[in-house]
Amino acid sequence: MALFNSTNFNAEVFGRYVDRIPNLRRNELIRSKAIVERQRIASIFSEQAGGNYAATPLFGQIGGTPANYDGKTDTPTNSTKTFSHYRVVVGRQNSWTENDFSADIAGGTDFMDNVGRQIAEYWDAVDQDTILAILKGVFSMTGTENKKFVDNHTYDITSEGDGMFTASTLNKVIQKAAGDNKQKFSLVIMHSEVATNLENLNLMEYLKYTDANGIQRDMSLATLNGRLVLIDDSMPVETVGESTSAYTQYTTYVLGDGAIEYTNCGVEVPYEMDRDPKTNGGQTTLYSRQRKIFAPYGINFTKKSMTSLSPTDTELQNGANWELVNTNETTGKEYIDHKAIPIARVLSKG
Fold this sequence. Notes:
Elements: H1 11-19, H2 24-31, E1 35-37, H3 44-47, E2 53-59, E3 82-88, E4 90-99, H4 100-105, H5 111-138, H6 144-152, E5 154-156, H7 169-178, E6 185-190, H8 192-200, E7 205-210, E8 216-224, E9 227-231, E10 237-240, E11 247-256, E12 260-264, E13 271-276, E14 283-296, E15 299-301, H9 313-316, E16 322-324, E17 343-348
Parallel strand pairs: 1-12, 5-17, 6-9
Antiparallel strand pairs: 2-3, 4-14, 6-11, 7-8, 8-9, 10-11, 11-17, 12-14, 13-14, 15-16
């Protein structure tokens, strides 16, 4: 019997099987604290009208000017503001079909089992694409308060010197973004081209471990200015300019603790199999679905330009769908201080 056949398929058991397949990239993101799980938020969607869009409160800081305590001056009264953080559920689905004949001519090779073993990594890649689409949208925001975030959390060095990432770049971008709150940044995600240039300058330090023989070896994880570095060629790369003035621009993201809040909302049937004995002499299809939230801290999804109950990657990239968290008042609206948001980016030539 094949490991996953349509007659004996158990979706719950299969889900546990998928979850235990290791994926280092996902584990390191979680370990870095840049993505923090907020699973309790899943229950909000069953309590609020509409199962794909909801708001959670962010409580404002106390403030006000103290009065003189002299026995004749009244005590002033202040109150705090409540900010609303709106988030959307992103739903995705896919399926994979394998023919019986493929197994017949390959000596009984279980192609569907091969599909099952790759699903965890497949969805990790999809999730990363979702996060990158969200970050692109966030840095495409317009409007006075939103632009304060975009401008102050972007460090464009393409016109500075040779435009390359240097020893001081990381420290400068996080100071520009958060001021004296820069210690909140803990993770850097960069393209291998940028990482290689930094390695050639001996600026990257690789974490080490001692093997069973007592020999110290480098791990594949590096640090830069004390921040964990993840190297991933899916980071944005684009050609800027035309003809002889064109250059390749690399985007490096810098994230802090809790920069992205993650919730797995689940689906009614996450996995199922279907057997079709007629088509192509017999074939089996494995279906997979998911609904997840990736909410950047301090930034709302507005759904101003969303045509269905789940945003596409193109809609996530649209700056019109994002704005800074605010008090949602008709007049006197207050926005979250952009320095509280641990998300920044560097634009460089390498």
